[in-house]
């Protein structure tokens, strides 16, 4: 209980840091960001919209002091007001509401597959260490080192536009009508295949190598020898060792999620997937600050929530963490 | 100084080879480049030929020259960011681990917050607010990247420092009245070297990825040649879909190779720290030479000792 409370406090603090970074950054830059924004829009916005932009920045440039601005900014945020996107002209929160589910679905499923398969393969690699399977390691390392977006581009080129094995670009075909019907759902899965495979290929090596190393260390332990001495079947012995070896991987899960999300955002970009990654690129290219900040905040909060879930899993699996207040 | 001998693991040798190649490329690449990478003198969209080893861009620039010139910016920013981040990590991690108490609580909290913040989105937000002049400044970009990349190293170094803090030799130094900073730098720091090296490799790896990604989405100056800007131009001219593989594949492969080299070197450090992994990293031929069982058996994972390792062709590795 204590550990969960401490983790929760940490994530709350991190969320607060992210929120505050968003507040401070526009103020560190030379010039008045609101004036810059309005200048860029060149009178395409109504007075109401200008007011909304100003409010979402906490009334920057207004006469009231910084603490008051900060207070306004926090209240706006609490009401879900992330400001208005400059290029799209719509509230940032409603834009994000449409794209976040795609990203969470894509990255969530890829991470689960990658963790599961990678850990399984790592356990086998650790068990059969020194065999010819070890030659997989440099290959896996290579895949780990390839930037996500580059691997995705190559996959898109080879399996999408050259071989036509997978549909490319977008999340579903233009010919199906969105809704709760099987054609639509199957279509989404079909379109997600290649992005998911790219993300899994880029991220699997980390899990695999980590698990292999822990497995090798674990096999030297007495309890494994004991299991063999008792005459347990090999599969059970491997399970015995693997269950203990997997704990550090799960402890690292919450740290790795941030990295995977960062990489996967760019995969969306390559595949024109209608998630947050593609949106982020557009926002960056157009210097759409409210949108960039909104995306940063939403990604951070989602990653923190995922971290908390990973911590719960770790807590459920390792009884030692329930007594030690290890952070 | 004591010299430890490490068996030549093929993985480590491969990693050393790759890194040597790219470091040479970083140093002499821009001089070797046959043409000015920005000059648009040639016919656009040429396929690879004897004159243009990797063809030309849609603006008529020589891609091979871009690759050679781009190596320097990419590697320098990655190394700079890696070094600064490692310096931050050592300062924060060792201080936290050695002093403990309130200092430790504060610094650990700081690094945990930075670990939980997703790095790339944070980088993008900071970078998008930088004035354009700073974006083209490799130094500024390197520093910003290092700010988002130090936390993992600090955490690992703190843990190791804490485990060293109460060992007998540190205790002995304390009892004979050595000063705190002397204990930190002369007694504890040398024992952190392998972990420090591994943390440096990882931060350089992170920095390369971060820098290239920033360049790829157009957040660094598009006129400074690095492997990320090459990918940016290739992507924005639709090179992947029009089959111009020679434009976007070479920079991607280079990035991946540098990353592989760094990771392979890290295997060497892992095997150096953990004797069980060291024995597992040997080839079957080396195992036979040492009289180790060809497939290690349970409960008997052999620990490779320096005396045994001398029998295998030795590669010198200085430590302690």
Characterize the structure shown:
The complex is a heterodimer of chains A (about 325) and B (about 325). Chain A has about 325 residues and is mainly α. Chain A is built from 13 helices and no strands. Chain A has helices spanning about 1-30, 35-40, 45-55, 65-80, 90-125, 135-145, 150-160, 180-220, 220-230, 235-270, 275-285, 290-315, 320-325. In chain A, helix 8 packs across helix 10 and helix 9 (about 220-230) crosses helix 10 (about 235-270). With about 325 residues, chain B is mainly alpha-helical. Chain B has a two-stranded antiparallel sheet. Mean pLDDT of chain B is about 80; it is low at about 1-5 and about 310-320. The chains are: A mainly alpha (about 325), B mainly alpha (about 325).
Class based on secondary structure composition and strand pairing of chain A:
mainly alpha
> What is the gyration radius of chain A calculated from CA atoms?
24 Å
* Secondary structure tally: strands of chain A: 0
- The helix/strand series of chain B, from N terminus to C terminus, equals EHHHHHHHHHHHHHHE
- Form type of chain B: globular
Question: Distance between termini of chain B?
Answer: 6 Å
Order of SSEs of chain A, N→C? Answer: HHHHHHHHHHHHH
User: What is the largest interface, and how many residues per chain?
Assistant: A-B, 68 and 62 residues
**Helix amount of chain B:** 55-70%
Give the helix tally of chain B: 14
What number is the mean pLDDT of chain A? 79
Shape of chain A: globular
Main pleated-sheet profile of chain B: 2 strands, antiparallel
**Biggest sheet, spatial arrangement of strands of chain B:** 1-2
What percent of residues of chain A adopt helix (DSSP H or I)? over 70%
Main β-sheet description of chain A: none
**Individual helix count of chain A:** 13
